[in-house]
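Entry — protein

Goal — fold tokens:
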Amino acid sequence: MQNYIDLALRLDDMNWATLPSHGKKCFVPKWPDAGNIRPDRAQIEYWVKNATRLGLGKNTCHVFGKASPLVAVDIDVTDPVEARRIAVLAWNELGGTPLVRIGKSPKAALYYRKEGFYHGASSEYDEPRGNSVEVFATSGQMIWFGMHPDTNKPYRWLRDSPLDLSPEDVPVLKPGCLRRFLSQLPVTRDAGNRVNKPTRDLTAQLRDERSRAANPHHYMEIIDDQLSRMKSSREAKGAGTRSLTIVSVSYALTKRGLSDTEILALFEKHFERWPREKHRLTSRARIAINSARKKQSRRR
């Protein structure tokens, strides 16, 4: 099996930045930053040299963000017939791509290039998470090479891999095509035949992400990544995630024993994205923190 030590510099030569990972988890300190500031050659050489000593793992992952040219459409469906149907729909609506990665079949991830990435202004993409199809463009990471922790078999590529292509060789995905594709996906329902609300999906997703933390430092990195993914209703076309994320993170951090000042400092850093709303958002965060503390005191 090819591991990070074997592949990282070759991938960097092809203009792909990658990090070492253990299974599906990345233990590199502040790994989400690699999605916004591309790691340079010296940093990648450091990871290659020290990955084993530091216990960073043998798998190879790619981090999404402003510095990444990619959009990934992750078809997280276990039924073979439904997975194929969605894959065909994606191929028809989004266009074909030579980069298709398989981890645990029939699940598959399709990779495209961001529109406008090499012209200084990447387009914005819808990024649903916690559903049968997830989209990664501004945050998160995905494994490219190594062993899948569930199958204990290597990740594989159907045609070409990033070892064969540079980012410029990957077809562009237009945001409108992605929206059209997402609008045609089936509506999921719960056991009572009720349409699953995105808020329920997001709550479970955030909680699940935090449960995978390897240590306290990693936990706070996950929290920071969750806050960086918050979107207003306007940004998400009516499906904003700020309010629910604020509530979820407030509960998690108060439970961890952080002070109000520490929690608000984390929030305010991310509220800088909305300068006109910062005061209102900070007030909302204070309310969420107080509510979380009351709930936890009642459970004692």
User: Anything to note?
Assistant: The mean pLDDT is 89. The first strand starts at residue 19 and ends at 21. The beta strands are 19-21, 59-63, 70-75, 100-102, 108-114, 133-136, 141-145, 156-157, 172-173.
